[in-house]
Specification:
Chain A contains 6 helices and 12 strands. Chain A is an alpha+beta fold. The chains are: A alpha+beta, B mainly alpha. At the A-B interface, strand 5, strand 6, helix 4, helix 5 and helix 6 of A face strand 1, helix 3, helix 9, helix 10 and strand 5 of B.
């Protein structure tokens, strides 16, 4: 029995140590640089380079998207004839907080031949008319674009290796399992582009997917995950504030009192100035 | 040079925030006011959500009023008994105000209500200060002597639970400072202010306290009201950004010292008119935000 248990442990250990090797032999067809965005005290937004290899002859789009979530909004309108305030609630049940798309060509050019709706590459597909009327959708999208969370950059996905990081070419043969079988490894081309995330982006896992367009059909070529996480002091402070609000409030008050008393002591009036 | 604020969930420019603290501290040192009623609207104009701006400003005021209390306690110009009554009311009012913000956030109306309260308070105080300053400059002093007690005086006299406050040399019903404390406490939570700009005239005109104990007692009450608001906002709404408060504090400490030194060389009435103009400019900016069409006809419920 002990031998069996020992054999299982050894087997599991081998499997763990072998996994990176497996990863090297079958690299991802899509590379993000960085793959993990760390929100520290100096974080001021991030630029994420995406590099991918797709079959020759394809046009493509890369979509960065957060998990669909409930968004509670208010519709602004005039009250009493002159005051702008919330006049009604709007709840969107499953809309991502972040939605960015880079494409090689304008989506309008591929739309006539390909049904794009299931791929959620356009705002109207992401938030259909039945969920939010076009006027309010435009307002919502405008708000999100203003915050830098939503963006569609047609032509933002360029062919060729990135100038900024020539090392970044995705290894040949990488997307073999994802590409249509008719395309051989050497008939591939590189694409690159940048997603720009604002400082207000929330931590979490965001999906990044490449969708290829050819011959009146769209194909999911590959996908990966972008991780965004708080680190260091930012993480500790946030955890303290959210998980231990009372302790955080007491600590904030105590530190403020100490700073205030020190300031009062340092700048105290001299005895001859006090009257 | 940017710093990420973990609670506000956004990055800010450090020199701008320290500079803002310095500017408000300078004005507060120059004009002898707390400055909280200017800080929160200015933070909102710089893109900090109203709820975070108000809560973090309360935290900053804790430090500013501690510093002031230290100086006044050295000079023995705090009426602790009166301060405690105002404080009990202030803590109750602050608790009420924090609950009110919670409800308003759930209704998606917190930002609107905070802005409206600001416009009303800044408009009222700014106009009053402007007219008072202009009157004083013209040499017309108000005559407060009246033939018989006013309705207010008779009403206050009629209230039960009279107590003596030796340091202020007054005898008044305990209900008055308690109710006034509640009023200031609600404002402190809603607006992120200490309430000195309301408390000082209230003490002078309504409580008839002598001038030399007014500022110290006001600071004493503000200190504890803002500690209560800071802790409650942290616990219930998670809207206190300590780093933001610290940056503002750094600037305001230095600015206030410069303001105090500069203010000594200026005339009081001129200062009052200048201050009223600053207050009215901020009020007009906030009012425009309420009456001009917003960039987008949609907003997040409860802020970010």
């Amino acid at each position: 029995m002990r031998r069996v248990a020992f054999a299982l442990v050894v087997h599991a250990g081998l499997a763990v140590t072998a996994s990176p090797v497996m990863g090297q032999s079958q690299p991802s067809p899509i590379v993000l640089d960085p793959q993990t965005v760390k929100i520290g005290m100096t974080f001021d937004g991030a630029s994420i380079e995406v590099r991918c290899r797709i079959p020759s002859g394809y046009e493509a789009a890369v979509r960065l998207m957060g998990r669909p979530e409930r968004q509670e909004l208010v519709r602004l309108g005039k009250r009493a004839g002159f005051l702008w305030m919330g006049v009604g609630a709007i709840t969107l049940e499953s809309v991502p907080a972040v939605f960015q798309v880079l494409t090689t060509v304008p989506l309008a050019d591929v739309a006539p031949q390909i049904t794009l709706a299931p791929w959620s590459l356009r705002y109207a597909d992401l938030i259909p008319d039945r969920v939010l009327d076009p006027t309010m959708r435009a307002q919502f999208v405008g708000l999100k674009e203003h915050e830098g969370l939503f963006a569609i950059r047609e032509g933002g996905l360029a062919r060729g290796a990135s100038v900024s990081s020539p090392r970044g070419a995705v290894p040949k043969g990488a997307p073999a399992q994802a590409m249509p079988a008719a395309v051989s490894d050497d008939k591939t081309e590189l694409l690159h582009g940048h997603f720009r995330l604002p400082a207000g982006v929330r931590p979490g896992d965001y999906s990044v997917e490449i969708i290829g367009f050819k011959d009146r059909r769209a194909v999911r070529l590959a996908g990966t995950t972008l991780h965004i996480e708080h680190v260091g002091v930012a993480r500790a402070l946030r955890r303290l504030a959210l998980d231990h609000g009372l302790a955080y409030g007491i600590a904030a008050s105590l530190i403020a009192i100490v700073v205030g008393l020190l300031t009062g002591f340092i700048f105290r009036p001299k005895s001859d100035e006090s009257h | 040079m940017h710093l990420y604020l973990p609670i506000a969930g956004n990055a800010i420019n450090v020199p701008i925030m320290v500079g803002l603290g310095g500017l408000v501290g300078f004005l507060s040192g120059l004009f002898g006011v707390g400055g909280g009623f200017l800080m929160t609207p200015l933070l909102m104009m710089l893109g900090i959500p109203a709820t975070v701006a108000a809560a973090s400003d309360s935290n900053q005021i804790v430090a500013a009023s501690s510093s002031g209390c230290y100086a006044h306690s050295c000079a023995r110009t705090i009426d602790i008994r009166m301060g405690l009554f105002l404080l009990v009311g202030g803590v109750a009012g602050g608790t009420l105000g924090v609950q009110l913000i919670k409800v308003l956030r759930s209704l998606g109306a917190a930002e609107f209500v905070i802005r409206v309260v600001y416009v009303l308070m800044l408009g009222g105080i700014g106009t009053y200060m402007l007219f008072e300053g202009l009157h004083a400059l013209r040499g017309r002093r108000k005559t407060v002597a009246v033939a018989r007690p006013s309705f207010y005086q008779r009403a206050i006299e009629a209230l039960p639970f009279k107590l003596s406050f030796p340091r202020s040399k007054i005898t008044i019903s305990a209900i008055v400072p308690l109710v006034l404390g509640v009023f200031v406490g609600v404002l402190a939570a809603l607006m992120g202010v200490g309430g000195g700009f309301i408390m000082v005239p209230v003490m002078i005109y309504l409580l008839r306290m002598p001038m030399h104990v007014v500022v110290g007692t006001s600071l004493f009450q503000i200190l504890f009201t803002c500690i209560n608001v800071t802790i409650l906002q942290s616990y219930m709404n998670h809207t206190v950004d300590f780093l933001l408060a610290l940056l503002l504090l750094l600037g305001s400490v230095i600015g206030a010292q410069i303001g105090v030194r500069l203010g000594k060389g200026l005339k009081g009435d001129q200062l009052k008119i200048l201050m009223s103009l600053v207050v009215l400019v901020v009020m007009v900016k906030m009012l425009l935000g309420l009456i001009l069409a917003p960039d987008f006809l949609i907003a997040y419920k409860g802020g970010h």
